[in-house]
Amino acid sequence: MKKLLAILLAVCLMAGLVACGETATTETTETTETTEAVAGAFKIGGTAPLTGPAAIYGTAVKNAAELAVEEINAEGGIQFELRMEDDQHDAEKAVNAYNTLKDWGMQISLGSVTSKPCEATSTETYADRIFALTPSASSTATIEGKDNQFQMCFTDPNQGSASAQYIADKALATKVAVIWKSDDVYSKGIYDTFMATAPGLGIEVVSDTTFVDGNDTDFSVQLADAQANGAELVFLPMYYTPASLILNQANAMGYAPVWFGVDGMDGILTLEGFDTALAEGVILLTPFNADSEDARTAAFVAKYQEKYGEIPNQFAADAYDCVYAYKQALEAVGATADMTAEELCDLMIAQFTTMTYDGITGESMTWDASGAVTKDPKGMVIENGAYVGLD
Amino acid sequence: MNIFDSLISGISLGSIYAIIALGYTMVYGIAKMLNFAHGDVIMVGAYICFYTFTGGLMSFLPAVPPYAAILIAVVVCTLLGMLIERLAYKPLRTAPSLAVLITAIGVSYFLQNAALLLWTSNPKVFPSFFNFGGNTNIELGGLRISYVTIVTIIVSAVIMVALTLFTSYSKTGKAMRACSEDKGAAQLMGINVNTTISITFAIGSGLAAIAGVLLCSAYPTLVPTTGSMPGIKAFTAAVFGGIGSIPGAMLGGLLLGVIEIFSKAYISTQLSDAIVFAVLIVVLLVKPTGLLGKPIREKV
Phi then psi for A133, rounded to 5 degrees? Predict the structure, then answer.
């Protein structure tokens, strides 16, 4: 009798749990095969956090890459077949996802979307001689010492110095606080160059505080320190999840400095349940401005919005540029889809280091031999729950 | 940051640790096992509350007001606690305690991954239940205290007193203490040991739901691993205060929070966790049973 009760209880509970998951499961069962198989197409693959804390980036990259591939395939010239695998922003899962892509026959890669997974997969693509152009993994370790790894986004050091430069140029503040995540390469990379550049530009860093994984919920001390030292601007080189808590707690404290984020801040507006009023006035430095009057950007934004129902962020734009940069490079060298990954790799290295590419995230981008890109950042501010260009 | 602000931040953080530690210590005190899944029951409680409040739990259910959402979370977690106990711990009642400990870690991973599947790992921002008149804070003599902190302190104090009274005076409570002292003897005296331990888990898990709601109200990001780190910190707090002792859990939680914030504010934000655990080591070296723990005399 008791056993029966226990089983009944178990069944009820599982039913309950399954029922609450109903809404969520539809999201996770997305197909990984994103575009249809095309004969004579280049197999292009990448790993992205399609679920997990950084899912906003992964989904944006996947959507935009898909859009670009569809456009290019419709033109009839070079054909692409795209496949994105979920890595949940985890290095180990990214390597597994990469192996799946390799088995599938990937010829050129979009690397991984976020830095930590990309550092892992870039080691693999380097060893396997598969050319990779990551849309958004910005740490230096991603490309360092790997001749076939290229980036579409700025490197972290670049973001740090560009942020300091921007703050000084626009005279946003002279007293600045920095809160950064000390166990994260992305955050530390930006922090290091920011700190190296800021003093030379007349910016005084009055408060310098950190947090780590597992201790990333309470920011009262860091914020109080910034406030007590009279920081007019708080620089947040981090992803949007901790940033949302910081904005929340600062609001509760009644502290309202200028908030300055980097590309990791992009996505805060689409966080489920987040009160976007808290992000009002947040400035972030990104290479892409969805409000731009540039015809290509406007067309991309309109198409993306029509297809996915939201305004594309910088990650989407970077991914879109990646696919088009590939198209330009492949056309320039006259590559054909029956070439091996290794042949393509050598051709791409030669091509990317010499070509100039005009995209929606910047005009006349060039790459140096290390794989880092040169382009100008744009300042954006959040107004009425939307990103607005500052320049 | 002046010393009073630090103290208040420390108490807010500590009160969260305290309320989680109460559940830990309660189960340890009676069943003599470390329920490492406690932190994850907290996470489940927070999710249930989030989904019942926002109306996303089951499509035919309407969104409910906060108090009902909390109540539903408590009921679900109580049942979940009983279920876990029945399926995972009860068959191991006579097994060595190490086996139970490993099982508890297994249950913890199971719950985290089940949550990952059901609710995905996209972070949810927990609604703020404790704002009165659009304000989440109260100003007291120039100091700003959030309502969540006040509620958490009151709730943990009430729970502490209630649990102490319950275990001291009620019949079930007395049975619990008897079981904790000597299971065999308790059984000989006509106490149903299995039922008593099940009730302990039910209460502990119900408390976990309340802790989950308060944790997520204070730090409103909800992911499947939300409960794990606070769970470990709260376990530390319980050991700090003397595991098994109900007032000890409260004291340990508050002290741990205050030490953490003070070391962040006055020593280094990078080293705060290291300092917290160093303090724990020192306390355990000086007083191995924790601050309020009773030394156990082994009878031969």
Answer: -125, 105
Residue in A209, A252, A273 nearest the CB of B146: A252
Q: Report if pTM > 0.80.
A: no
Cα R_g (chain B), whole angstroms: 19
Check CB contact under 8 Å for A218 and B261: yes
Q: Based on the fold, state whether residues A273 and A180 are members of the same structural domain.
A: yes
Q: For chain B, percent helix, then strand, then coil, each to nearest 5?
A: 70, 5, 25
Looking at the domain assignment, is residue A33 inside a domain? no
For A33-75, write each residue's pLDDT tens digit: 556 666 688 999 999 998 777 788 898 999 999 999 999 999 8
- Say whether the ipTM exceeds 0.85: no
Alpha carbons within 13 angstroms on the beta-carbon side of residue A107 total 21
Provide the token pair at B156: 């943990």
- The per-residue pLDDT of chain B, averaged, comes to 86
Q: How far is A11 from chain B (nearest CA, A)?
A: 10
* Contact A272/B at CB under 8 A: yes
**Distance between CA A110 and CA B59 in Å, rounded?**
38
Q: Which residue of A has its CA nearest to B131?
A: A252
A105 touches chain B (CB under 8 A): no
Confirm whether B238 is domain-assigned: no
Q: Cβ contact (<8 Å) for A245 and B119? A: no
Which chain A residues are within 8 Å of B80, Cβ to Cβ?
A: 13
Q: Which domain holds residue B174?
A: 18-132+143-226
How far apart are the C-alpha atoms of B216 and A239, rounded to whole Å?
20
A197/A265 same-domain check: yes
pLDDT at A319: 94
Is the residue at B213 inside a domain? Answer: yes
Residues A122 and A161 in one domain: no
Q: Which residue of A has its CA nearest to B6?
A: A221
Q: How far is CA A282 from the centre of its chain?
A: 18
Give chain B positions within 8 Å (CB) of A241. 123, 221
**Would you report the helix, strand and coil content of chain A in percent, each value rounded to 5?**
50, 20, 30
